[in-house]
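Lab notebook: predicted structure, single chain.

Context: the supervisor wants predicted structures on file for every construct in the current expression panel, including those that have not yet been purified. This is the next one on the list. No modifications to the sequence; it matches the entry in the shared construct table.
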Amino acid sequence: MQRSGNANNKIIFTNYEDDQVIIQFPSSNILSRGWWWNGFRDYLVVNGFELIGAKYAILVQGDHNEVTNCKVHNTGSDGLCIWGGSYNLIAHNEIWNTGWNGIYIESRVRVGLHGRANYNVVEYNYCHDNSQHFGINIYPETDGIQDTLIGNIVRYNISENNKGGMYIRRWLDGAIYGNLFVDNYNNGLFLHHWDNTPPLPFPSNLKIYNNTFVRNTPYWSISGDSFSHITIKNNIFLQDANYTIIKIDHPEGCTLDYNLYYNTGSNLVVRWDWIYYTLTEFQNNEGQEINGLWADPLLASDYRLTANSPARDSGVDLGPPYNYDMDGHLRGEDGNWDIGGFEYKDTRIESEISIEQPKHRLSLQPSIFTSTTTICLALKKSATIEIGVYNSLGERVSGSGLRRSKGEISIPINLKSLPVGVYLCRVRLIYDDGSVEAITGKAVKVR
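Prediction complete. Output recorded below exactly as produced.
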């Protein structure tokens, strides 16, 4: 990339509607960068590509850039990278089988400034099966002068079956909320320090809200060995091994409450300043988790809450911007927040939606598919979009949520894990004035 765009005129690289663009690089082991802007270019957009191979598939340096709706896999090192830059967006990508991290953000040096990587947003990405390192990794350049990373947000991502779920260092005023961390070997969330510095407490003001952690063993769901001043609320921690769930080595300024814990292999919930506690001991000795729960969360196979889950209505209202779940549902519509990444919703389809005459056009392309189909929709105005996919019995089998501005939009949905059959896709459009529209479309999965 030789030049930058600007706020009013972004430089956009995107696939044509209904086309699939695949770029395969010659080798994942050579010292090559795939899609790379050097010299810190700004206001560039890459959307809708599949990139295979290269050492780094996409490498961003600069501010206000966007990488969206891409598939990245089989790279020699990291999949999607930001090496120095702020106000960037990485959203709706799938990254797997990389040689190191799925998504990697580092505060590399910019001309005239020391390194920085601030106010970036990482959302709605699926990082899975990255066996060499973490699904998401965001930290300062390890050059001995440790930058502070300010105001980064990681929300509504799935990090599954990686060596580790997410790794961060020296975060200030950041937020990690609404994510799903499942079956990651080396910690669900790792709050660490540079190996060549002592693990001194870093006063982070980090917020960890409404995430769901499932079977991140044999280590910790959250391992905090160098962060202090953390607030951890409304999370589900489900383990199945003889390990303590959370480690907090520097409890100064830390608050834990309204979390739900369950471990079939041990009743220890926390190592707090090197002291191990059950939930009751933690409440009595440290005054933490006064509203915390020890109970089986009764999760469905997709890690959403079932009707009888004790996580329902057991959370605390954390206010905006934390008041939407991964599916785009508004939290606390009945007056109470649920614990975990998903608010409970009755998955039965309302009978009246088939009668409603929609004001918007919806199509599924292709309507006969093998693994992935795309929702194509013309929005008249900005809306929160809730997507639910239902089988022939009316049972919800998949879903997601997001916000989009007015205009023609395309939203890919991956249903490769579902059996062959007919599926109904229901889309709810929730506008800022509170009005709601519902639209349906049908697709058939074959093979």
